């Protein structure tokens, strides 16, 4: 058995390189979408594929490999920040095929990987030091013609609490867009292109409470001129 328990793989994902969403069935989103779990499998005969994800709760789910009624792997994340300042990752398998698990923390960009070698019964994973960024709050802003969600112009603004650290991911879901700079919050202007997220970490101070306006800086269609938004620091 060569399951990586004590020292699982630990790498940092490049922006846009992590699994992007859960619209398909290959990625399982856990803990409100903060953690993205992907799996791949290979049999002794050489057959291979990716696992099919099925959510159970906000923090747990399972994967099937061959048929939907045949569960192969159950996983969960646990917020243990009050216990040891970490998020935990647990997994249990009902298989002896080769399994590769990738868990991405979109708040930090870090990725943990776990491997079960082929021909060995899957041993439980109980990683109680998987991710340490308890103080970072992930926030996804989807960008479409001609809307930031959240942000504006329709709907709610981006709401931030002073003193809290946020990792904000701006993600285009259609065409190329851009974000104007917000120097007071340390946010640089940047293109926001399909398949390439713009990620910024910000910790607004109490004296920065107020409203900050931004706009799309890349022509994205006939409604481009009205595409703007607001960050509210409370």
Keywords:
234 residues; mainly beta; Immunoglobulin-like; 2 domains; six-stranded antiparallel β-sheet; five-stranded antiparallel β-sheet; 1 helix; 20 strands; 2% helix; 49% strand; elongated; disordered N terminus
Would you give an account of this structure?
- This protein is elongated.
- The longest helix has 4 residues, at 81-84.
- The chain has one helix at 81-84, and strands spanning 9-12, 27-30, 35-42, 48-50, 52-55, 60-64, 71-80, 86-93, 98-105, 110-116, 125-131, 136-144, 147-149, 158-160, 165-172, 177-179, 190-192, 198-202, 210-215, 228-233.
- It starts with 8 loop residues before the first strand and ends with a strand.
- It has 2 domains: 9-131, no CATH class; 136-233, Immunoglobulin-like (Sandwich), CATH 2.60.40.420.
- It is mostly beta strands and 234 residues long.
- 31% of the residues are buried.
What is the gist of this entry?
The chain is mainly beta.
SS strand fraction: over 45%
Count of distinct strands: 20
Q: Tell me the overall shape.
A: elongated
Largest sheet: 6 strands, antiparallel
- SS element count, helices: 1
| Poorly predicted runs of 5 or more residues | 1-20
Radius of gyration: 20 Å
* End-to-end CA span: 51 Å
Tally of structural domains: 2
The proportion of residues forming helix, as a percent range, comes to under 10%
- Please write the string of helix (H) and strand (E) elements: EEEEEEEHEEEEEEEEEEEEE
Mean pLDDT over the full residue set:
88
Class from secondary-structure proportions: mainly beta
């Amino acid at each position: 058995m060569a399951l990586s328990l004590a020292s699982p793989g630990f790498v940092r994902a490049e922006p846009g390189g992590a699994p992007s969403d859960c619209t398909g069935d290959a990625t399982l989103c856990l803990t409100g979408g903060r953690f993205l779990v992907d799996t791949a499998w290979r049999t002794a005969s050489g057959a291979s594929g990716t696992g099919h994800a099925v959510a159970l709760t906000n923090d747990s789910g399972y994967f099937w490999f061959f048929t939907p009624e045949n569960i192969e792997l159950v996983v969960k994340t646990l917020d243990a920040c009050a216990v040891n300042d970490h998020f935990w990752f647990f997994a249990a398998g009902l298989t002896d095929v080769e399994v590769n698990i990738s868990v991405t923390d979109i708040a930090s960009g870090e990725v943990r990987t776990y491997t079960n070698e082929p021909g060995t019964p899957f041993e439980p994973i109980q990683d109680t030091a998987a991710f340490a960024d308890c103080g970072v709050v992930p926030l996804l802003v989807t960008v479409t013609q001609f809307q930031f969600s959240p942000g504006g112009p329709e709907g709610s603004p981006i709401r931030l609490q002073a003193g809290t650290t946020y990792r904000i991911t701006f993600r285009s879901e259609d065409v190329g867009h851009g974000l104007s700079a917000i120097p007071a919050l340390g946010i640089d202007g940047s293109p926001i292109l399909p398949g390439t997220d713009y990620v910024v970490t910000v910790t607004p101070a109490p004296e920065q409470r107020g409203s900050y306006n931004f706009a799309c800086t890349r022509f994205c269609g006939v409604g481009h001129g009205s595409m703007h938004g607001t960050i509210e620091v409370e």
